[in-house]
Amino acid sequence: MDASRLFVDTCHELEQRLVENTPHSILRTSLPLRQLILDDSPLVLQLRRTHRAVPVEFTVDVSAIDWDTVGFPAPDVEFLLDQALGPLPPMFKRITLDLERFLKLRFARVEQKTFTVKEVIEFMAYVEGGIHLGRAPDDEQKRLEEIGKFFQLDNLSLVYVAMRGIATAALRAMRPMLDAVLKTGAP
């Protein structure tokens, strides 16, 4: 299978898992996300070699509050929004990032420890069971497990809610490349 076909199929798999919107399907978004944006040679960057003009931009909503300048301490818990939850609250702003900055984006801060998009994908893939069911290898991964147990939204762990938001942002970022690949007649 060539990179174009794998990219198209992987985008469709990610989209299907988001449409299903079950805890299991959200967990399983970690596999296509890993292939599309996280592997040593992610599919989207492989295709960028032949589709240089196609933008790969991740649009996300982040806190607009600069806690260092507002004059009072930051909360112990702060999470990135999932755009699927509804309209943008006034304390958030929409930003656009490249792949490298997206993977480094803070998804959450809990007690002064930040967790990035990359860390969440890896946690879902290798600890929660999206690819392999495993044990949290360090205190940071164990902290993500705790977050999942104690912070819930509509009976869904906030780590899963964040994963759905990450997957949604990634799929949206893949859309221009997917359209370009399909337009060239790739299988």
Describe this structure as you would to a colleague.
The structure is a single chain. The chain has helices at residues 3-20, 23-27, 30-38, 43-48, 99-104, 117-126, 139-150, 158-183, and strands at residues 58-63, 77-79, 92-97, 106-110, 113-116, 152-153, 156-157. The chain is α+β, with helices and mostly antiparallel strands. It has one domain. A 3-stranded antiparallel beta sheet has the order 2-4-5. Strands 1-3 form a two-stranded antiparallel ribbon. Strands 6-7 form a two-stranded antiparallel ribbon. The longest helix has 26 residues, at 158-183. It is globular, with a radius of gyration of 17 Å. The chain starts with a helix and ends with a helix.
Give the helices and strands, then pairings.
Blueprint: H1 3-20, H2 23-27, H3 30-38, H4 43-48, E1 58-63, E2 77-79, E3 92-97, H5 99-104, E4 106-110, E5 113-116, H6 117-126, H7 139-150, E6 152-153, E7 156-157, H8 158-183
Antiparallel strand pairs: 1-3, 2-4, 4-5, 6-7
Helix pairs in contact: 1-3, 1-8, 3-6, 3-8, 6-8
Q: Show unreliable segments.
A: none
Number of strands: 7
Count helical runs: 8
Percent helix range: 40-55%
Strand order of the largest sheet: 2-4-5
Element-by-element helix/strand order: HHHHEEEHEEHHEEH
What integer is the average pLDDT?
A: 80
